[in-house]
Amino acid sequence: MHGRPRKASKPEEEAASAAKAVKLRSLQSQFMKNHHDKIYTEEAIELSTKLLEINPEAYTAWNYRKLAVEDSLSRIDSDPNLVNSILDEELRVVESALRQNFKSYGAWHHRKWVLSKGHSSIAHELKLLDKFQRLDSRNFHAWNYRRFVVELTKRSEQDELQYTDDMINNNFSNYSAWHNRSVLLSSLLAQNADGFMPNERIPDEYDLVHSAIFTDPDDQSGWFYHLWLLDQTLNVETPLLTSSWPSHGSTIILSGAGCLNGSSSKFTTFCSESGSFPLILYFDQAVGGVSSSTVTIDSELKGNEDLVWEPISYKNSQVSCVWVTHLKYVSTDLCEYKVKIRVGNSPGIVSSRGHNFRAPYEFVFTAHVHDTVKDSQEGIVSWTDGFDIWDAKSKDLNSLITLDQLQAEIDFKWRQEAIDSEVECFGILSDSKIGKLTLARLLMAREAMVSDDAVKGVRYEEILQLYNDLMALDSSHYQYYKDEHSVAFLHKMTSSSESLSRHLFRYRGMNNLVCLRLNNLSLSRIASVEKLLFVQMLDLSHNELHSTEGLEAMQLLSCLNLSHNRIRSFSALDSLRHVKQLKVLDVSHNHIGKHSVDTTRYLCSSPLSNSEWSQDDVGRQNPGLVTKYWDAYFVLRDLNLKQLDIAGNEISGNEFSSFVLQVVPKLVWLDGQKLGN
Amino acid sequence: MQKLDIAGLQNKDGSFSGDIWGEVDTRFSYIAICCLSILKCLDKINVKKAVDYIVSCKNLDGGFGCTPGAESHAGQIFCCVGALAITGNLHHVDKDLLGWWLCERQDYESGGLNGRPEKLPDVCYSWWVLSSLIMIDRVHWIEKGKLVKFILDCQDMDNGGISDNPKDVVDIFHTYFGVAGLSLLEYPGVKPIDPAYALPVHVINRILFTK
């Protein structure tokens, strides 16, 4: 129990406590009888006062008093003096209850209820709050009540901001004051209020928060405020297009199902049974409103007039960073087509924060439709051989990858200056945890702003070293730094075509698929996917991944190797449901079925998250197995797999294998075995 | 028994009141959504508005408070993240930002979790913080072994039960959250508990996977 030490109590203390309990019980039962019989006499009300003085948490007693107040008010013909005396008595009772327990929800709400009647003076309230907030400057009830009073009195946000100044100057270790400051300031910044332009105001705020962080680097009060300021510095409100597939100036080869005739092409080859290929747009923030009217497509490919654009996101959301549509082509029409795309042609693309996409962007690519040999052999995909290394100097790499962000001109100057000055500042603090972490974040932010090839990527080694230091320095949060390390590593790898090409291969077995091999890198997290949209085959084996979050953008992916990772459940593969091309999946030697806690249970679209679901034959025939293997059921039935490897997981076994075959009847290969018809 | 109309407590802005007297708090949003989901009656309320209100309580540190503008608090974060999880709306959560805030609740010395920055660790946050971290898939960011030790250190070895911290007297509330926390930490011998409903996983699965 909060604030009550564990010790053997003396007999006299026990006796006193028993006597108190008897008194409270008798008071409570008398009170409940009054409440039940609707007795609102002076005596009865006084009894509830006594009860609340002993126990301010008695919600029913507060509600009883509201009934009593309404009863009294209804019988006094709105005589203002009488009204005030009734309501003042309520305020007095609340005040004394709060002295007893400052955290009583019921007492605070009762005060709001009385004030909302509009008869009492509110001038007194801020003074009372000052008194309370001096006693406990972190009490969130008092802060909430303060915001309520401020709204009622229409006190200005500037005045309240000054109040947070005073509180912080009095004691910088006041997270509540920093929090309220962030609420007020973001409102003032959003209004572009006088003196609150981001480029003027944010540098001053950095100075203020330094006073907290540099006084005591271990005190967390300023940490989150600093991170919020960094976010404000980087936040370019207007959404921008980051990348696309196909990229500007690229050439792709399209063919029908099966193998391509003489497939030695240096371009990306895309085979499709449905005769369509994806067109992917990747924005720097979640946007809505991508449609055939906001994105126009000019090409001779027939039948693409009313394209449907889909957000690649969780089903309930109509906003996403990634949008995809499918362009149709006829595989017998051998020809070369130019396709011109104009994004933001008419207004309508809007970020989730409500800002318009304002910089129309145009890009062009060439599509060759090639002949195919009808060869329906369905060979097994091997991850051990059949890979050709990529010639790093060849030009086709550049046509594949657009590493430069497709960004419009933005005013980066004050943002860069602010970050440079922070980098300098935190360099001094780099022996502390928050110093190192902040420095690493600042350098990551700085790298994202660099467009000059000569200095691009030069800070990544330093960032990786900072995260290595942090893993040793603060081992409790080892995995957090490890994840950040993986993100920085992937940013580094994708920062130049030279470093990326070291991991690129062609897979001979299937039309020279473009394969990215990131195996054995101890990656615990996926990042930089926006630069990897062209990848068709991805080897992530022998890493430390526990989820496929992020891979949903890779709409070309047809083969994925996740063997020897830390996947705990099929629900962790939920993002793959968006990857409709995926045919080959290896999740062997993971941790599926080993743990009782499923950390992606609610991040997966299923009845648990109240998603609509239709009952199929498998569900009707085997309700028990569906409940037992729900994660495999809901994820696998949405994939179009031909080849699946699940051996080496706790879940593996005959029962599970035969269940998988029912859920994925089109499967050809399971754990290396070809399945009979 | 008097009939209780949970759906009737939803306000125009999507929020929920605790009772007819109109106290509004995201705790009540969670309670309403949790009950109605178990009863398979979520269609009785405006889920979209309920979600919008919860999202309006999201703060710049990634956490959630009682009402718009109110400071983040681990208990309140559980309520909001839980309600978003149940309704399939976790995409509104900034998982990395909130995950960092939540994992920094772990006290380096004792291994226990607190509910807000610069506060003391308390066993009940083993539930509020851990369940939220699990729902957003960031629970690997804390050190589980240290937290198990903290909870076990809060046991009263003579009389049974678990307290808020090793020095205090035990109570039912902290005993429940201590055991629930151990379940979320996969402590041997404790059955799995659902992080959104705080009920056994097999019970929730039986209810929700049955048409």
UniProtKB/TrEMBL annotation, chain A:
Superkingdom per UniProt: Eukaryota
Entry's EC annotation: 2.5.1.60
Top class in the EC scheme: transferase
Pfam families linked: PPTA
Catalytic activity: geranylgeranyl diphosphate + L-cysteinyl-[protein] = S-geranylgeranyl-L-cysteinyl-[protein] + diphosphate
InterPro entries, A to Z: Leu-rich_rpt, LRR_dom_sf, Prenyl_trans_a
PROSITE patterns (alphabetical): LRR, PFTA
Gene Ontology cellular-component annotations: Rab-protein geranylgeranyltransferase complex
Annotated family: Belongs to the protein prenyltransferase subunit alpha family.
Identification of the protein by name: Geranylgeranyl transferase type-2 subunit alpha
Organism from which the protein derives: Arabidopsis arenosa
TrEMBL record, chain B:
InterPro entries: PGGT1B-like, Prenyltrans, Ptb1, Terpenoid_cyclase/PrenylTrfase
Gene3D superfamilies listed in its UniProt record: 1.50.10.20
Cofactor(s) for this UniProt protein: Zn(2+)
Keyword Repeat: yes
Entry's EC annotation: 2.5.1.60
PANTHER family, per database record: GERANYLGERANYL TRANSFERASE TYPE BETA SUBUNIT, GERANYLGERANYL TRANSFERASE TYPE-2 SUBUNIT BETA 1-RELATED
Protein name, UniProt field: Geranylgeranyl transferase type-2 subunit beta
